[in-house]
Amino acid sequence: MSSETKESLFDVGNGIKLWYRTWGNSTGIPVLFVHGGPGNCVADYDGINEKFFNKEQYFVVEIDQRGTGNSLPSVRDGHKNMPMYKDISITQMAADFEKIRQELGISQWLVFGGSWGSTLGLYYAENYPSKCLGLIIRGIFLNTKDEFDAVYSQKPFEADAKRLAEFNTFFELASNEAKNSQEQTLDPNDSERMIRLYEKMILRGDRDAIWRFYVFENNLVEEDESKLLYPLKVSEGEFPTALSVSFFEARLFLRGTFEHPLTLMEDVKKLKEGTTGPVKTWVVQGTGDEVCPDRFARDLVDQLKKESIPTTSHFVDAGHKASSDGVFKALQDCIKDFNEYYTK
User: Taking every annotated instance into account, which residue ranges of this chain make up the domain AB hydrolase-1 (predicted)?
Assistant: First the structure.
């Protein structure tokens, strides 16, 4: 039994290397941690997985998704690396996990992730069900137009003066970009066009656009007021994260919503194809989640049950983050439940 932490770079081709870290019991239950964003990385989670998984019992694999964190080339190192990932897809990202699974000689693993990690984790499980021991996801995002509109259009914020002001600061920059490009006036409820304008600015390295994009969503998610960011004042220490998150969110959300729409809801039936039966699924959702509203998680749970996928759901009075008290406790309960389910 080995419990040492190991870090590695794995070449997935086309000049791209993925950084990953393993820790825990090398003969224990394997876990794939799928981080969120997209554009965040393992380091952004401050070692929270060590609070979920007993290192004597589990073997945890944490991967910086392509282009993020310590993976190379990293968008955190500058917008010059963005063109390398202009064609990035969720299909490539799931295939990256498969390559690392094979490299490590793991036959099956528990898939564990939240936010964008729920999107990519669910996609992976639907496409590689025989490789999954189970699926635990929180802060559900299915990359649909309705979810896109819930964050990137004005209407959802009209009843909340503070949130509306934050949205208007976000909208202002895209509106100005449309005017300066002599384009048609931007409708504040045209979410697709707004994010396409932002992507245009992000790709040319516009610091204001990169920062405002990142801050707008960060402040919807953040529950600790001391960690709220100012949209008109760039924090240099946080800017590399802003580079990565703004680029990958704009690119992958536009691709998965409009260009090559994902069918995650329809494809939950694929979870029936696990090695010993359907992939048991646990869903955790904060009812106060502003960036991933709980109605979409409820729709997913309904669909899972409709397809007879064994499902346990926890809707808790909490926000978006894994560290949010109610979410944290529910995730602990899911892991305990998985352990009983797996070892029975």
Answer: 30-325
| Planar angle of CA 234, 239, 244, nearest 5 degrees | 140
CA distance 29 to 133: 9
Q: Across all residues in the chain, what is the average pLDDT? A: 97
- What whole-number distance in Å separates Cα of residue 303 and Cα of residue 296? 11
Helix or strand holding residue 311 (H, E): strand 311-316
Alpha-helical segments (H) within 255-317 = 294-306
Q: pTM for the complete prediction?
A: 0.97
Q: Where are the domains of the chain?
A: 6-142+262-343, 146-259
The string of DSSP codes covering 223-252 is: --GGG---TTS--TTTHHHHHHHHHHHHHH
Rounded-to-integer distance, Cα 23 and Cα 9, Å: 15
Q: Give dist(CA 122, CA 261) in Å, integer.
A: 15
User: pLDDT digit string (tens) for 245-277?
Assistant: 999 999 999 999 999 999 999 999 999 998 889
Pairwise CA distance, residues 330 & 327, whole Å: 5
| Contacting residues for 168 by C-beta, under 8 A, at least 6 apart | 154, 188
Decide: 228 and 219 in contact? Cβ < 8 Å: yes
What's the sign of the alpha-carbon dihedral 90, 93, 98, 101?
Answer: negative
Q: What is the pLDDT of residue 277?
A: 92
3-state secondary structure of 63: strand
How many whole angstroms separate alpha carbon 159 and alpha carbon 288?
16
Structure tokens at 92: 């490539």
CATH classification of 6-142+262-343 is 3.90.226.10, yes or no? no
